[in-house]
Amino acid sequence: MTGSQDTPSFRLAYVPGVTPAKWVRIWEERFPEIPLTLHSVTAAEAPDVLRVGDADAGFVRLPVDRTVFSAIPLYTETTVVVVPKDHVISAVDEVTAEDLADEVVFHPLDDVIDWERPPGQPAFERPATTADAVELVAANVGLLVVPQSLARLHHRKDLTYRPLVDAPQSSIALSWPEDATTDQVEDFIGVVRGRTVNSTRGRMTSEASAAKDQPKRGRPESGGSARRQPGAGGRSGRGGSGGAKGAKGGAKGTRRGKPRNR
User: What is the DSSP string of 47-108?
Assistant: First the structure.
């Protein structure tokens, strides 16, 4: 791990479908002195952006080149088929690749699903982008299979989607160049993994470090005397016990001495 950089901010890349707002908010609360800047990149661009140092870390789609990048897998997405709302598939809860056998299914050039063979019938040509393919689905030209986050990203009122249960899935990871694991990268790893500022596995803020260095308050020396105080029972407590009885008797005597109402 290298030392802290002189850059004035932490640069975070993210691919379409990823919503980094939660992690950004935690970063801003925890490290207000280090601005975080976001860079939207395509899934294909992400490795080069990280490799040349245009971003310190990024939310990318797996796989990545593990000889160059470190990666922490975060989650795997459900794969869905996007269809017009009046399509017969919209009447069912989920579909299989066999259900798409007679359908034209678009396979855009920026597809992020690692297919051995895409389902359905191939289109006359491949759309340049997922956004272009969505437009074609809305025109009732064919269907589209994507990770669920991309179906949500390109949501339209005239389209819907259903899970494709036997399709490959796409996974999201936090990744960065292995030889550029800076202190800021370590800090962001802690944010993503849910570590607190006092976690021993991550770097601490100056306030947390200062709190840790404060001397602990020692417990008062109790010794054995606290257990041997008069009236606490045992042989040494007989006198105390008698005193308690005497006090009790005295209380009874006081009650007997009260004048009766006549």
Answer: HHHHHTTS-SEEEEESP--TTTEEEEEEEEPPEEEEEETTSGGGGSS-B-GGGGTTSEEE--
Q: Partners of 13 in the beta sheet?
A: 39, 58
Amino acid at 213: D
Cα–Cα distance between 56 and 39 in angstroms, integer?
A: 10
* Cα distances (angstroms) measured from residue 128 to each of 66, 132, 164: 28, 7, 23
Q: Cα–Cα distance between 19 and 58 in angstroms, integer?
A: 12
pLDDT digits (tens, 9 = 90+) for 146-179: 999 999 999 999 999 999 999 999 999 999 999 9
Q: If you count them, how many residues does the chain have?
A: 262
- Tens of pLDDT along 64-79? 999 999 999 999 999 9
Q: Which residues contact 129 (CB under 8 A, 6 or more apart)?
A: 108, 109, 110
Helix axes 21-30, 183-192, angle to 10 degrees: 120
